[in-house]
Amino acid sequence: MSSASEKTVSPSASKQSSIKSVELSTRSPKLRPQNGHTDGPLPEGQPKQLEKASIKDRLTRMFSNKDDIPRSGGVVDLSQPSKRAVPSPAPSQQNGTSPPVKPGAVTRKPSGADPAVATKSVFQQRFVVIPDVPGGHEHHLKGSKRQEKLSDMWKTLLGKKQDQPPDADLSLVSSWVDTLKQEKESLAGDRKGGPNQSSTLVEKYGKCQEVVGRGAFGIVRISHKKMENGEKLFAVKEFRRRPEETEKKYSKRLTAEFCISSSLRHPNIIHTLDLLKDQKGDYCEVMEYCSGGDLYTLVLSAGKLEVAEADCYFKQMMRGVEYLHEMGVAHRDLKPENLLLTNHGALKITDFGNGECFRMAWENDAHMVSGLCGSAPYIAPEEYIDREFDARAVDIWACGVIYMAMRTGRHLWRVAKKDEDEFYERYLEGRRDEEGYGPIESLHRARCRNVIYSILDPNPTRRITASQVLKSEWGREIKLCKAGEEGL
User: Per residue in 119-154, is it b (16+ CB within 10 Å) or e — as a string?
Assistant: First the structure.
């Protein structure tokens, strides 16, 4: 039960007063759990153990980090020596060399070794609690390893007939499988080599090689630029012309995106460097390279993030969104796939293909926008109802869904339409009920719950703003790591 001092930060406090901070899970959707255990009895007639695991269960096991991280889910608290992970001894080999260590695994400390060696090995964890560093924690990501996991999954799944996931499954794993099926035909073509690179592109940024991202726009590759002291990497986004799109419209669309992204300067916004054409005449946008991968892949591989870990990423995202809105720009396609991470855990918003300038520099008032865009689970309800709406409120709604995905590993609903999605309808019922909505109530912190309820207010005129989120009690108490603060 929340204390009297923990009040909602929503602009419509009176509307939120019926929501109490009680721990109740009975109102949450009956979703298949990620860890294979059930919170209640199985439906009548369903066997307790399936002879053949579903595709989602198999993928979840393949993505499991049980062998790589402690039971705490990848968190190591260096302030509690008794809770440090105890590594298993590595088997010896005849040639006297040690076997390769798995990504994220804790290495064994040789007897009599310097304690600093053991501490260094602990740092291989994804998220480490260290009270003495700025923010009290550090992130240690290895994006290339997660990308290799996804590549292995593609090889396993492509061309094979798979069981359909159940309709009630909102896990990110099932969503990823659906995406794979849609992109199946394009995967082989993306691997056949880089773009027809112009001499200017190669000279300035090096040769484009491996694919690290993919979407409706085209693909993103890493370009390798040889320098005197080694090699510098850039992300090169190769645009594709849409069906029946004229050269003029194609050029206008990409130029508009580049104008938006290249004008933004913030630690939590991707730095866009250049816009060039390859030998075929297709545009390539050059950006800074974030070697930690994207937030979607991180959540997919981890199952769900720890509280302080998710909070840090959430605050970084809200700082970036606040800056965008102050600059008169709305993203309009915020989702975990468009949130990139550095190895140290700095989060950067990318992909402004659906970006909207809702206020010019000389204007004071925001223009309403129209049109449906984005990915269904993150689209705000007013986009389906209103002819025009506030693009800033649309971004804020998506941030709330992203936070819940980080904390639960699931989407709250498929689409925020009452008559078409039972989970969204249950959410609306939960908001009116004193017991609240199960998935949000499970967050266990009143200040956090109240902010999330205020972010996910179906009425956009009452929805909290990015600045209000950061100024809330919960927003102020979230500690940012040094990398997130400075965009390192």
Answer: eebbebbbbbbbeeeebbbbbbbbbbebbebbeebe
Structural domains in the chain plus CATH codes: 13-30+304-486 (1.10.510.10)
Q: 95 CB contacts (<8 Å, ≥6 apart)? A: none
Instruction: Report the predicted TM-score, pTM, of the whole model to 2 decimal places.
Output: 0.71
What average pLDDT does the chain have? 75
Q: What is the pLDDT of residues 318-359, one digit of tens each?
A: 999 999 999 999 999 999 999 999 999 999 999 998 999 999
Backbone angles phi, psi at 100, to 5 degrees: -65, 145
In 150-217, where do the E strands start and end?
207-215
DSSP secondary structure string, 446-477? HHHHHHHHHHT-SSTTTPPPHHHHHHSHHHHH
Compute φ and ψ for 459, nearest 5 degrees: -90, 110
Gap between the Cα atoms of 43 and 429, Å rounded = 23
Judged by average pLDDT, the poorest of 39-53, 215-229, 293-307 is 39-53
SS (H, E, C) 1-66: CCCCCCCCCCCCHHHHCCCCCCCCCCCCCCCCCCCCCCCCCCCCCCCCCCCCCCHHHHHHHHHCCC
Q: Check if the beta carbon of residue 421 is closer than 8 Å to that of residue 414.
A: yes
CA quadruple 324, 385, 409, 234: dihedral positive or negative? Answer: negative
Cα–chain-centroid distance for residue 177? 17
**Nearest by Cα to 456 from 486, 435, 478, 430:** 430
Contact 128, 70 (CB under 8 A): no
Record the tokens describing residue 222, joined without a space.
Answer: 């890493």
Tell me if 224 sits within 8 A of 206, measured CB to CB: yes
Q: Give me the pLDDT at residue 217, please.
A: 67
Decide if 222 contacts 208 (C-beta within 8 A): yes
Residues assigned a catalytic role: 333
Both ends of the chain: CA-CA distance in Å?
Answer: 39
Confidence of residue 125 (pLDDT cuts 50, 70, 90): confident
Q: What is the pLDDT of residue 301?
A: 87
Q: Are 366 and 324 in contact (CB under 8 A)?
A: no
* Per-position b or e across 27-43, b if 16+ CB within 10 A of its CB: bbbebbebeeeeeeeee
Cα Rg of the chain, angstroms: 23
Structure tokens at 87: 């590594």
Alpha-carbon distance of 247 to 242, in angstroms, equals: 10
Instruction: Examine the pLDDT at 69 and tell me if it is beyond 60.
Output: no
